[in-house]
Protein backbone atom coordinates (compact mmCIF):
# COMPACT_ATOMS: atom_id res chain seq x y z
CA UNK A 1 0.00 0.00 0.00
CA UNK A 2 1.47 3.41 -0.97
CA UNK A 3 2.32 5.82 1.75
CA UNK A 4 0.39 9.00 2.46
CA UNK A 5 3.20 11.12 1.05
CA UNK A 6 2.99 9.41 -2.30
CA UNK A 7 -0.78 9.81 -2.35
CA UNK A 8 -0.48 13.55 -1.59
CA UNK A 9 2.19 14.02 -4.25
CA UNK A 10 0.11 12.22 -6.87
CA UNK A 11 -2.98 14.25 -5.98
CA UNK A 12 -1.02 17.51 -6.17
CA UNK A 13 0.36 16.60 -9.60
CA UNK A 14 -3.12 15.74 -10.85
CA UNK A 15 -4.54 19.03 -9.61
CA UNK A 16 -1.71 21.02 -11.23
CA UNK A 17 -2.22 19.16 -14.51
CA UNK A 18 -5.93 19.98 -14.53
CA UNK A 19 -5.24 23.64 -13.75
CA UNK A 20 -2.66 23.91 -16.56
CA UNK A 21 -5.05 22.35 -19.07
CA UNK A 22 -7.86 24.69 -18.03
CA UNK A 23 -5.55 27.74 -18.24
CA UNK A 24 -4.26 26.86 -21.68
CA UNK A 25 -7.70 26.14 -23.14
CA UNK A 26 -9.21 29.33 -21.74
CA UNK A 27 -6.18 31.45 -22.61
CA UNK A 28 -6.32 30.53 -26.31
CA UNK A 29 -9.95 31.55 -26.54
CA UNK A 30 -9.52 34.71 -24.48
CA UNK A 31 -6.61 35.92 -26.62
CA UNK A 32 -8.85 36.65 -29.63
CA UNK A 33 -11.29 38.59 -27.46
CA UNK A 34 -8.78 40.48 -25.37
CA UNK A 35 -8.73 44.30 -25.77
CA UNK A 36 -5.06 44.31 -26.80
CA UNK A 37 -5.59 41.76 -29.57
CA UNK A 38 -8.72 43.45 -30.93
CA UNK A 39 -7.08 46.90 -30.89
CA UNK A 40 -4.02 45.57 -32.73
CA UNK A 41 -6.09 43.84 -35.43
CA UNK A 42 -8.27 46.91 -35.88
CA UNK A 43 -5.22 49.18 -36.22
CA UNK A 44 -3.69 46.91 -38.89
CA UNK A 45 -6.94 46.83 -40.88
CA UNK A 46 -7.34 50.61 -40.64
CA UNK A 47 -3.79 51.12 -41.87
CA UNK A 48 -4.29 48.79 -44.83
CA UNK A 49 -7.58 50.43 -45.78
CA UNK A 50 -6.01 53.90 -45.45
CA UNK A 51 -3.14 52.94 -47.76
CA UNK A 52 -5.56 51.46 -50.26
CA UNK A 53 -7.68 54.64 -50.22
CA UNK A 54 -4.58 56.80 -50.66
CA UNK A 55 -3.47 54.73 -53.65
CA UNK A 56 -6.94 54.98 -55.19
CA UNK A 57 -7.04 58.74 -54.60
CA UNK A 58 -3.59 59.17 -56.14
CA UNK A 59 -4.62 57.16 -59.19
CA UNK A 60 -7.84 59.15 -59.57
CA UNK A 61 -5.93 62.44 -59.25
CA UNK A 62 -3.53 61.34 -61.99
CA UNK A 63 -6.43 60.34 -64.23
CA UNK A 64 -8.26 63.60 -63.55
CA UNK A 65 -5.12 65.64 -64.26
CA UNK A 66 -4.66 63.76 -67.55
CA UNK A 67 -8.26 64.44 -68.57
CA UNK A 68 -8.00 68.12 -67.60
CA UNK A 69 -4.80 68.47 -69.60
CA UNK A 70 -6.44 66.99 -72.69
CA UNK A 71 -9.44 69.29 -72.24
CA UNK A 72 -7.20 72.35 -71.91
CA UNK A 73 -5.26 71.43 -75.04
CA UNK A 74 -8.48 70.84 -76.94
CA UNK A 75 -9.87 74.18 -75.77
CA UNK A 76 -6.69 76.02 -76.76
CA UNK A 77 -6.79 74.41 -80.21
CA UNK A 78 -10.44 75.32 -80.68
CA UNK A 79 -9.86 78.91 -79.50
CA UNK A 80 -6.93 79.27 -81.90
CA UNK A 81 -9.01 77.90 -84.75
CA UNK A 82 -11.86 80.27 -83.87
CA UNK A 83 -9.52 83.26 -83.75
CA UNK A 84 -8.08 82.36 -87.15
CA UNK A 85 -11.58 82.10 -88.58
CA UNK A 86 -12.58 85.46 -87.09
CA UNK A 87 -9.56 87.27 -88.56
CA UNK A 88 -10.29 86.06 -92.11
CA UNK A 89 -13.54 87.63 -93.41
CA UNK A 90 -15.84 85.32 -95.33
CA UNK A 91 -15.52 85.49 -99.08
CA UNK A 92 -18.75 86.34 -100.94
CA UNK A 93 -20.10 83.76 -103.30
CA UNK A 94 -19.59 84.70 -106.97
CA UNK A 95 -23.34 84.57 -107.60
CA UNK A 96 -24.07 87.17 -104.90
CA UNK A 97 -22.05 89.86 -106.65
CA UNK A 98 -24.18 89.61 -109.78
CA UNK A 99 -27.61 89.19 -108.21
CA UNK A 100 -28.61 92.84 -108.66
CA UNK A 101 -28.18 95.38 -111.43
CA UNK A 102 -26.03 94.72 -114.44
CA UNK A 103 -24.95 91.06 -114.63
CA UNK A 104 -21.44 92.25 -115.42
CA UNK A 105 -20.70 95.27 -113.28
CA UNK A 106 -17.89 96.60 -115.47
CA UNK A 107 -17.32 99.57 -117.67
CA UNK A 108 -18.39 99.09 -121.30
CA UNK A 109 -15.68 98.36 -123.81
CA UNK A 110 -15.32 100.69 -126.69
CA UNK A 111 -17.04 99.70 -129.89
CA UNK A 112 -14.91 98.02 -132.46
CA UNK A 113 -12.50 96.63 -129.94
CA UNK A 114 -11.49 93.02 -130.36
CA UNK A 115 -13.32 90.45 -128.28
CA UNK A 116 -11.01 88.44 -126.06
CA UNK A 117 -11.48 85.57 -123.69
CA UNK A 118 -13.54 86.47 -120.65
CA UNK A 119 -15.59 89.19 -122.41
CA UNK A 120 -19.13 89.02 -123.64
CA UNK A 121 -20.68 91.26 -126.28
CA UNK A 122 -24.24 92.40 -125.51
CA UNK A 123 -25.94 94.44 -128.23
CA UNK A 124 -23.67 97.25 -129.30
CA UNK A 125 -21.56 97.22 -126.14
CA UNK A 126 -19.10 94.77 -124.75
CA UNK A 127 -18.69 94.03 -121.06
CA UNK A 128 -15.78 92.27 -119.44
CA UNK A 129 -16.59 89.40 -117.07
CA UNK A 130 -14.59 89.37 -113.84
CA UNK A 131 -12.30 86.39 -113.68
CA UNK A 132 -12.56 84.03 -110.74
CA UNK A 133 -9.65 83.37 -108.41
CA UNK A 134 -8.65 80.15 -110.16
CA UNK A 135 -8.73 81.88 -113.57
CA UNK A 136 -6.44 84.64 -112.30
CA UNK A 137 -3.90 82.09 -111.14
CA UNK A 138 -4.12 80.00 -114.30
CA UNK A 139 -4.11 82.70 -116.95
CA UNK A 140 -5.18 80.23 -119.66
CA UNK A 141 -8.67 80.25 -121.14
CA UNK A 142 -9.83 76.79 -122.12
CA UNK A 143 -12.74 74.48 -121.51
CA UNK A 144 -12.67 72.76 -118.14
CA UNK A 145 -10.05 75.10 -116.70
CA UNK A 146 -11.97 75.64 -113.46
CA UNK A 147 -10.84 73.76 -110.39
CA UNK A 148 -13.63 72.22 -108.30
CA UNK A 149 -14.50 74.30 -105.30
CA UNK A 150 -14.32 72.81 -101.82
CA UNK A 151 -17.64 71.46 -100.64
CA UNK A 152 -16.63 71.22 -96.97
CA UNK A 153 -18.46 73.63 -94.71
CA UNK A 154 -16.00 75.75 -92.73
CA UNK A 155 -17.07 76.57 -89.19
CA UNK A 156 -14.82 78.66 -86.93
CA UNK A 157 -11.85 78.35 -89.28
CA UNK A 158 -11.89 74.53 -89.14
CA UNK A 159 -13.63 72.27 -91.65
CA UNK A 160 -16.07 69.61 -90.57
CA UNK A 161 -13.80 66.96 -92.04
CA UNK A 162 -10.86 68.17 -89.93
CA UNK A 163 -13.03 68.18 -86.82
CA UNK A 164 -14.18 64.64 -87.50
CA UNK A 165 -10.58 63.52 -88.03
CA UNK A 166 -9.52 65.14 -84.77
CA UNK A 167 -12.37 63.44 -82.91
CA UNK A 168 -11.37 60.09 -84.40
CA UNK A 169 -7.76 60.59 -83.25
CA UNK A 170 -8.85 61.56 -79.74
CA UNK A 171 -11.15 58.54 -79.50
CA UNK A 172 -8.42 56.19 -80.75
CA UNK A 173 -5.89 57.70 -78.32
CA UNK A 174 -8.26 57.23 -75.37
CA UNK A 175 -8.90 53.63 -76.39
CA UNK A 176 -5.16 52.95 -76.55
CA UNK A 177 -4.61 54.39 -73.06
CA UNK A 178 -7.26 51.99 -71.76
CA UNK A 179 -5.36 48.96 -73.09
CA UNK A 180 -3.08 48.86 -70.05
CA UNK A 181 -0.98 50.88 -67.63
CA UNK A 182 2.13 50.72 -69.85
CA UNK A 183 1.97 51.78 -73.52
CA UNK A 184 4.90 51.75 -75.98
CA UNK A 185 4.45 53.95 -79.07
CA UNK A 186 6.88 52.58 -81.64
CA UNK A 187 7.68 52.22 -85.33
CA UNK A 188 8.70 48.92 -86.85
CA UNK A 189 11.71 50.29 -88.74
CA UNK A 190 13.13 52.43 -85.91
CA UNK A 191 16.25 50.94 -84.22
CA UNK A 192 15.60 52.91 -81.02
CA UNK A 193 12.11 51.42 -80.86
CA UNK A 194 13.56 47.93 -81.32
CA UNK A 195 16.00 48.56 -78.47
CA UNK A 196 13.27 49.74 -76.09
CA UNK A 197 10.99 46.82 -76.97
CA UNK A 198 13.86 44.36 -76.54
CA UNK A 199 14.60 45.63 -73.02
CA UNK A 200 10.97 45.80 -71.88
CA UNK A 201 9.70 42.61 -73.52
CA UNK A 202 12.74 40.31 -73.49
CA UNK A 203 14.84 41.30 -70.47
CA UNK A 204 11.98 41.93 -68.02
CA UNK A 205 8.76 40.23 -67.01
CA UNK A 206 6.04 42.88 -66.59
CA UNK A 207 2.45 42.08 -65.62
CA UNK A 208 0.33 43.21 -67.38
CA UNK A 209 2.74 43.29 -70.33
CA UNK A 210 3.40 46.56 -72.19
CA UNK A 211 0.95 47.32 -75.02
CA UNK A 212 2.87 48.18 -78.20
CA UNK A 213 1.40 50.55 -80.82
CA UNK A 214 3.22 50.60 -84.17
CA UNK A 215 2.46 54.08 -85.51
CA UNK A 216 3.70 53.30 -89.02
CA UNK A 217 1.12 50.51 -89.29
CA UNK A 218 -1.79 52.32 -87.61
CA UNK A 219 -4.31 54.04 -89.88
CA UNK A 220 -4.27 57.14 -87.64
CA UNK A 221 -0.52 57.03 -87.00
CA UNK A 222 0.35 60.67 -87.90
CA UNK A 223 -2.57 62.02 -85.89
CA UNK A 224 -1.67 59.85 -82.90
CA UNK A 225 1.92 61.07 -83.08
CA UNK A 226 0.75 64.71 -83.01
CA UNK A 227 -1.56 63.99 -80.07
CA UNK A 228 1.33 62.26 -78.31
CA UNK A 229 3.51 65.32 -78.85
CA UNK A 230 0.84 67.60 -77.35
CA UNK A 231 0.41 65.32 -74.36
CA UNK A 232 4.05 64.50 -73.52
CA UNK A 233 6.13 67.08 -75.40
CA UNK A 234 7.94 64.28 -77.29
CA UNK A 235 7.33 63.73 -81.00
CA UNK A 236 10.01 61.10 -81.62
CA UNK A 237 9.57 57.38 -81.11
CA UNK A 238 9.78 55.30 -79.09
CA UNK A 239 7.71 56.97 -76.40
CA UNK A 240 6.95 54.84 -73.34
CA UNK A 241 3.95 55.89 -71.21
CA UNK A 242 3.08 54.64 -67.73
CA UNK A 243 -0.36 55.75 -66.54
CA UNK A 244 -0.31 58.50 -69.17
CA UNK A 245 3.12 59.87 -68.21
CA UNK A 246 6.18 59.50 -70.42
CA UNK A 247 9.37 57.96 -69.05
CA UNK A 248 11.34 58.66 -72.24
CA UNK A 249 12.54 56.87 -75.34
CA UNK A 250 15.01 54.16 -76.24
CA UNK A 251 18.08 55.80 -74.71
CA UNK A 252 16.19 56.62 -71.51
CA UNK A 253 14.99 53.03 -71.13
CA UNK A 254 18.52 51.76 -71.75
CA UNK A 255 19.94 54.16 -69.14
CA UNK A 256 17.39 53.06 -66.52
CA UNK A 257 18.19 49.43 -67.35
CA UNK A 258 21.96 49.92 -67.04
CA UNK A 259 21.59 51.88 -63.76
CA UNK A 260 19.27 49.16 -62.40
CA UNK A 261 16.49 51.72 -61.87
CA UNK A 262 13.95 50.45 -64.39
CA UNK A 263 12.10 48.17 -61.95
CA UNK A 264 11.75 50.89 -59.30
CA UNK A 265 10.64 53.46 -61.90
CA UNK A 266 7.96 51.19 -63.38
CA UNK A 267 6.74 50.10 -59.94
CA UNK A 268 6.49 53.64 -58.54
CA UNK A 269 4.75 55.10 -61.61
CA UNK A 270 2.57 52.06 -62.27
CA UNK A 271 1.24 51.76 -58.72
CA UNK A 272 -1.20 48.92 -58.17
CA UNK A 273 -2.02 48.65 -61.88
CA UNK A 274 1.34 46.93 -62.49
CA UNK A 275 1.41 43.82 -60.32
CA UNK A 276 4.78 42.35 -61.27
CA UNK A 277 8.12 43.70 -62.52
CA UNK A 278 11.22 41.54 -62.43
CA UNK A 279 14.25 40.70 -64.52
CA UNK A 280 14.37 37.61 -66.67
CA UNK A 281 16.74 34.90 -65.47
CA UNK A 282 20.32 35.25 -66.81
CA UNK A 283 20.06 31.93 -68.64
CA UNK A 284 16.98 33.16 -70.49
CA UNK A 285 18.73 36.46 -71.30
CA UNK A 286 21.70 34.60 -72.81
CA UNK A 287 19.34 32.52 -74.91
CA UNK A 288 17.60 35.66 -76.19
CA UNK A 289 20.94 37.26 -77.02
CA UNK A 290 22.05 34.15 -78.91
CA UNK A 291 18.94 34.46 -81.04
CA UNK A 292 20.16 37.85 -82.26
CA UNK A 293 17.82 40.14 -80.37
CA UNK A 294 20.50 42.46 -79.07
CA UNK A 295 19.92 45.99 -80.40
CA UNK A 296 22.27 48.92 -80.38
CA UNK A 297 21.42 52.58 -80.65
TrEMBL record:
A GO CC term assigned to this protein in UniProt: Golgi lumen
Protein name (record): Glutaredoxin domain-containing protein
The entry lists its GO molecular-function terms as:
glutathione-disulfide reductase (NADPH) activity
Which family, according to the similarity comment? Belongs to the glutaredoxin family. Monothiol subfamily.
Residue ranges with Basic and acidic residues bias: 121-137
In this chain the Glutaredoxin domain maps to 183-247
Biological process annotations from GO: cellular response to oxidative stress
Q: Which Gene3D superfamilies match?
A: Glutaredoxin
Q: Where is this region: Disordered?
A: 79-137
